[in-house]
């Protein structure tokens, strides 16, 4: 239901209508998005019928070292996607996992695949991800599991020194995780021979499709043995994605953990800016309130995001930004500082923040409204992860 917006100190006396925003940057779909869709009372965690997990990590018959590594990471019980897909992957079945980031899907495919490599150290695994950040995240999780196992990965993403990746590819490795463009480039340079890879994971296939990477992905898979083990993960299943599932997998088992709207445990509200005030004034007030400890702010353009971040720093906040004009090490550093709670605010564009897994984001603030409702759902999905409560606020001028 549409109710009055979230209160800030000097809540607007009068406010302009959302749909007739006369700003300098008219947005293509802003008019189409009804602010009522940005308001939602969070469902108490645990209110809905919970999935009953059937396995412990010991029941999966994965290597004991791996069970130990899982315990060291503090994972006590498998998440629903892990509970359901791991047995099938262990059996060598192709799997279609319909799951968003935040469900534990990375470990759902990594654990059985690491086990596969431990059983045969000549086994090579390829993981294709749509964004560098997601590739880094997967690589980090892999490295955290295999610390004592003498298994190695190479992360092949664009925007990083290709010579370094080439020298890593000359050494021995068990797994490559990469983005389609850079993988293709390295294949063209004869640095990767995919005929030796029997297992592939396509992560966030729907994003891959949205970002126009399917042609490259098709070419990459075309170099792999036909008789391979394919794992396909996607948050959504559209007509096009169905086509890709048919094209890329063989008799897959389908597991969906989309049993409920992932945004339901996110308290959502609008914040009216009001006449005579700027969005920056309101952001300043909010960030000084209790509980705004780890805040992800979304801006529309790279330029705008940089400007907000600089303004916040000038105002004395610990803030940084991620967007396409920053190089990989700057993005990685900003993200690392945010994850470790060394900065309070991370300002991001939609593309840079896609699929990011950040623990305990207290608030998502839509400084600029999202272009589409789909973008909105992706943005607010950065909070309220793994059944925690979160808050998402959308600024309305
Ligand atoms: P993902 O959906 O793979 O991005 O994972 C989301 C977050 O859940 C990551 O921070 C993981 O470290 C964490 N995670 C994955 N599996 C478990 C588990 N079984 N128990 C607790 N946390 C987990």
From TrEMBL:
Domain named Helicase C-terminal: residues: 279-397
Signal peptide per UniProt: none
Domain DEAD-box RNA helicase Q: from-to ranges: 55-83
Region described as Disordered: spans on this chain: 1-30
Pfam family of the protein (one): Helicase_C
Keywords per UniProt: ATP-binding, Helicase, Hydrolase, Nucleotide-binding
Compositionally biased intervals (Basic residues): 1-13
Gene3D superfamilies (UniProt xref): P-loop containing nucleotide triphosphate hydrolases
Coiled coil regions, renumbered to chain: none
Motif Q motif boundaries: 55-83
Domain Helicase ATP-binding: 86-255
Record GO cellular component, one term: cytosol
GO MF annotation list: ATP binding; hydrolase activity; nucleic acid binding; RNA helicase activity
Family: Belongs to the DEAD box helicase family.
PANTHER family xrefs: ATP-DEPENDENT RNA HELICASE RHLE, ATP-DEPENDENT RNA HELICASE RHLE-RELATED
Protein name (database record): RNA helicase
Organism of provenance: Candidatus Jorgensenbacteria bacterium GWA1_54_12
